[in-house]
Amino acid sequence: MTTNFYAPPSAIRAGRVVLPDEEARHVHTVLRGEAGDEMVVVDGEGGWYRVRIDHVAPEQVVATIVEQREDVGEPAVDVTMALGLLKKRSRFETFVEKAVELGVHRIVPLRTVHTEPESVREERLRNVMVAAMKQCRRSRLPDVAAPQSPEALLAASEVEIRLVCHAGDDAVPIRRAVDEAGPASSALVLVGPEGGFAPSEVDAAVAAGCRPVSLGARRLRAETAGLAALQAVVGSTGGGAEANLEGRGQNG
Ligand code: SAH
Question: Fewer CB under 10 Å: which end of the chain, C or N?
Answer without folding.
Answer: C
